[in-house]
């Protein structure tokens, strides 16, 4: 039986959603969203970037085989009308939509999906989406240069695609995000495509002003009747919390991600507290340690770091409670979260003992790469440094821009880093990031290798019984806790301020800023009519 994921617990309620249900969506107007995670977009080629920042615009411009349904807490078919499962759960035959048009007016066919997945598996490019496409039989051979095309993909006709997987998993959890967007095969190979991308989404590309904004406008031939509602979508780059705050108060933007300080301020403001939307996300924040740096190759050192940091104090004082304490990798919102697991205690004496046992009685020094992010970047690193210093570990800060950090993490060019990474929605896909066969460029950023862990995840991938699969994956998650490849910091509580005129916001636990924008609309009180 296929593994069916439980609906994700979407977190706290939203008055806006209830009122939006009762109203008839208005056509027209402009939706003004923000990209809050840095001072730029990484690329207009969404296959190349795993950053949440870039997927905000991609939700308007592109589409994947599946799409995330926040109400159901699971992926649902998007570019196909139905899927038939055979071959003991390994073969999936998709009946594709015959009404999905690219923004150049050409109809999407099975060839475009096959071309896109083959492109993502180009081993010379190390595209991050390869971690998902690799589940298709023969994809790894293309990645290694042993084959030109993925053998597990077969075109039956223009609108029928057969996909053979290597594991008994629901492909929806592998082909729903922007990293696996479907490109037009004839256009995407051209150099001009990156300057003016063409997608299948509800909005088509108009302009990109680097460091400022991306502007998209309504695609009239979008396959969902009557959608999108808005005429235009503007995604403005606003990495600074203070700039977002001023723009939101001045009604110049419709959405604004709130950091810890703003979260407290908006809750205390009678005019703003009603704009707050929040959800427990499937994201884990952590400090990653490079095992190629000798001290971090020893499990005892990695455990010592977890014992040396007063994580609860940092969450309460710095993150202002806008987070949940992390135990192991799988977050609270994961169907396999282990409630019985206790987080690492704050125990400097134990940390010192472990360091001594590992051969570092006086500690050691390392370089810690961080961005300025207020929730998991420089302020957190600054607070942790004296705690590590107390047990003899000295950290030197290397500060970089968020886009640079993403590249540092993917290439392994660090001793340690601090990051926020998707750890769901599917536990199998999330834990696969620590499998030795997953390259650092995909998501095994710590280059973690453990034979026992691999065995548990591999067995889970072949299990027919969902309960057995769950038990195996929980064991793998417990093993990660013991091995401590990271400092387990927190699971994110995402908070966004939404203007009262923007309707249809979804409580997306996979990333609150990633909205299916065709379902959003603005009423007549919006200043951007």
TrEMBL record:
GO terms for biological process: peptide transport. Residues 74-438 form the Solute-binding protein family domain. SUPFAM superfamilies: Periplasmic binding protein-like II. Pfam families: SBP_bac_5. Keywords: Signal. It comes from the Bacteria. Residues 1-22 form the signal peptide. One of its GO terms (molecular function) is peptide transmembrane transporter activity. The keyword Thylakoid does not apply. It is found in: Periplasm. Its main location: periplasm. GO terms for cellular component: ATP-binding cassette (ABC) transporter complex; outer membrane-bounded periplasmic space. Coiled coil: none annotated. Belongs to the bacterial solute-binding protein 5 family. This is ABC transporter substrate-binding protein.
